[in-house]
Specification:
The chain has 15 helices and 13 strands. By secondary structure, it is an alpha/beta fold. The strands form two sheets. The chain has a seven-stranded parallel beta sheet with strand order 3-2-1-4-5-6-7, sandwiched between helices. A six-stranded parallel beta sheet has the order 10-9-8-11-12-13, sandwiched between helices. The two termini are about 20 Å apart.
Length: about 400
């Protein structure tokens, strides 16, 4: 992207999500003024973010990540109070760190309200980056999934205070960044003005995620993500039980099985061939994809799901629900399948087809990889983002 004057962007995050990749892409375009994070400086640098562009809120990080390790073992009422304190504390600290020479500010949703207010006072255009569907819709979808399996849904998993805070952020910010058309529609349905939303799908690193040689002929299904209600793990286990293909294997790579809250149902639905794998660093995920035959994500609600892109880049056909933002990349039957939420029978039918038609499955995997190359790398994401910010800055200068 060419421009006569530099654009100085500040982006921020509590945790990581896709923001380290965002910061790297801004830096690639000489547009990153600062990344404000609660990770040590060494972490963003592993993702290619220049170390001198990182401001680390180390104390906040120690508190936040320490809490993350014990959170699942705490009572819901205590968990909710500590969560809110951490969100609000990060927002307040962040607000004091906004450089006055910034041209644009990006804050992660539920962690940037006070910073957005400071930006308005300083006349700095701002955006809130929202990586999911609207929380109200997510809560409803999760409640329906819980009801489907006879579980009691705890509304505290998406408490009222976080919905209210994000709604206030959406109102305060000039722009809301959504990572899929699905997420945009959800936000609009919940009252966010459509004209405020900029859709920019996330990307994948093709140097890290690429096809490799499969070492055996096992029909291996893989899902990557937390063992939780939202990821549709129960539906996938049910679908696999219905598969009835001897020798088929299901790998579920992710954390949370012990604290899922539905361990008894997981145990009941788990059949021979299912293997729960501990979470692995992103750098090692490629090895799991390359030993698999198909990727499945039966999510109830997923703003995009970067793991879908990773699997597709490794030449895997994918089966995902219509409530996964990445479904807009899928041409049904060509590079994957899109199925309804909560439909184990349909997932099982698609798995049977791929198992029984290996040549077609391989062709779908090749088509999946081509889909990623045509607009869904991190470079593509960065190009779209920096063009958007630069055009916004040019409009200000012309005025």
């Amino acid at each position: 992207m060419e421009r006569s004057d530099p654009v100085h962007v500040v982006t921020s995050c509590r945790g990581r999500f896709h923001i380290f990749d965002q910061a790297r892409e801004l830096a690639r375009h000489d547009a990153l003024l600062q990344l404000i994070t609660d990770y040590p400086k060494s972490w963003p640098s592993r993702f290619g973010v220049p170390r001198d562009k990182v401001h680390s809120m180390m104390l906040s990080g120690l508190i936040n990540h320490g809490w993350g390790r014990i959170r699942g073992y705490s009572q819901v009422k205590h968990r909710n109070k500590v969560d809110r304190w951490i969100h609000d504390r990060f927002s307040r600290k962040l607000a004091k760190l906004i450089p006055e020479d910034a041209h644009y500010f990006i804050g992660l949703s539920s962690f940037c309200l006070e910073a957005l207010k400071v930006c308005r006072e300083l006349g700095i255009p701002s955006a809130v980056d929202h990586g999911s569907l609207h929380q109200l819709e997510e809560r409803q979808l999760l409640a329906e999934e819980a009801d489907r399996f006879g579980l009691s849904f705890q509304e505290d998993s998406i408490p009222d205070w976080i919905v209210a805070k994000e709604n206030e952020e959406f109102s305060e910010a000039e722009t809301i960044f959504a990572i899929s058309g699905l997420a945009k529609k959800s936000l609009v349905r919940c009252g966010v003005p459509e004209e405020k939303i900029f859709v920019n799908q996330v990307g994948v690193d093709l140097t890290s995620f690429r096809p490799g040689k499969k070492k055996d002929d096992v029909f291996r299904i893989i899902q990557v993500g937390s063992v939780c209600l939202g990821k549709g793990v129960l539906t996938l286990l049910d679908a696999f039980a219905k598969l009835k293909r001897p020798g088929a294997v299901l790998w579920i790579v992710g954390d949370g099985q012990k604290n899922s809250g539905f361990r008894s149902i997981v145990d009941k639905l788990t059949t021979p061939g299912v293997a729960f794998k501990s979470p692995v660093p992103q750098a090692n995920l490629r090895e799991f994809y390359n030993q698999s035959s198909v990727f499945v994500l039966a999510s109830v609600a997923d703003g995009f799901a970067m793991v879908v892109l990773q699997a597709m880049a490794c030449e895997l056909p994918v089966i995902i629900t219509e409530n996964v933002g990445a479904s807009e990349l899928i041409e049904d039957g060509v590079n994957g399948f899109v199925v309804p939420v909560g439909a184990p029978e349909i997932i099982s039918e698609r798995l049977c087809f791929l198992h029984d038609n290996p040549e077609h499955s391989r062709a779908m995997g090749l088509a999946a990889a081509i889909s990623i190359e045509n607009g869904y790398t991190w470079n593509d994401y960065g190009n779209r983002l920096t063009s958007f910010v630069a055009e916004r800055q040019d409009r200000i200068r012309r005025c």
